[in-house]
Write a structure and sequence with these properties.
The chain has helices spanning about 15-30, 45-50, 60-65, 70, 85-90, 100-105, 125-135, 150-165, 185-200, 210-220, 225, 230-245, 250-264, and strands spanning about 5-10, 35-40, 80, 115-120, 135-145, 170-180. The protein is α/β, with parallel strands linked by helices. It has a six-stranded parallel sheet, with helices on both faces. Helix 1 crosses helix 12 and helix 12 packs antiparallel against helix 13 (about 250-264). It is globular. About 50% of the residues are buried.
Length: about 260
């Protein structure tokens, strides 16, 4: 059964989707079978995987019970989403056990993978609750801004509510500082604030700010292929994540992959 990680943030623009896309790519390169799940009605992760906009079925069909999750997997890599997911969220609101819908839907398809990465919407509503309830771990992405601590606290509230009421085995994997320019005092202070509050739950790797990530997303190409030198941050993060998940052999392979890509 796959280890499932929900990647969430209480607002948009924190690099969450790029994190899911790049971690999925890295994990695949070191031999893990990875499934990405797009739970954002904007479908940005699906675009990043270059899924056609008319692809069917999608996550909205899965949550509405019109399709099995296994039938919605596109090219064995992603269950895509589109704006229909917003309508599915409204339908879910009136159902008994609505918070468990995604967990039940993914139960069978997870057997064919080692890792499932869920990209949550940039809000802490029912879709995000479904994602964390379906996950073994929750990873928070935050930007290097003044209000980053407040955003992490709000995301943690959702995690703790899910843990207390729906999923007692849920674990918080940690928080990653994204879109950071560590040359600025502001970004360094944001990191220090997070470390002061959450200690070793803050990943040592901060993801640098760069327009190249948006360019790679627009082209539907992983940053490792588009600009390998910028992929170094995500390779370091991937190694940390794998070690926390217990994939130590794969973590060592990431270190080898980093040497190959960055020196190329």
């Amino acid at each position: 059964m796959a280890v499932t990680v929900a990647v969430l943030s209480q607002k948009g623009g924190t690099g969450k989707t790029t994190t899911v896309r790049t971690l999925a790519d890295i994990f695949s390169r070191v031999g893990l079978r990875v499934l990405a799940v797009d739970m954002d009605p904007q479908g940005n992760l699906s675009d990043y995987f270059d899924v056609p906009p008319d692809a069917e079925p999608t996550m909205s069909d899965v949550l509405a019970g019109r399709s099995k999750a296994a039938d919605a997997v596109y090219e064995e890599t992603i269950i895509p989403a589109n704006l229909g997911l917003a309508e599915a969220e409204l339908v879910l609101g009136g159902k008994m056990g609505r918070e468990m819908t995604l967990k039940r839907a993914l139960r069978e398809v997870k057997r064919g993978y080692d890792v499932v990465l869920i990209d949550c919407p940039p809000a802490l509503g029912l879709l995000t609750v479904n994602a964390v309830v379906a996950a073994d771990y929750a990873l928070i992405s935050t930007e290097a801004q003044y209000f980053s601590l407040q955003g992490v606290e709000q995301a943690l509230e959702v995690i703790e509510l899910a843990k207390d009421n729906l999923h007692p085995d849920l674990e918080w994997l940690g928080v990653v500082l994204n879109i950071a320019d560590m040359r600025t005092i502001h970004s360094r202070e944001a990191l220090e604030t997070l470390q002061g509050r959450f200690n070793n739950k803050v990943f040592a790797t901060a993801i640098r700010q760069s327009i190249r990530y948006a360019e790679s997303a627009e082209r539907g190409v992983s940053i490792l292929d588009y600009r390998p030198e910028l992929g170094a941050d995500y390779l370091d993060l991937a190694q940390e994540v794998l070690e926390r998940l217990g994939f130590r052999d794969e973590g060592r392979r990431v270190a080898e992959l980093r040497r190959e890509l960055v020196s190329a």
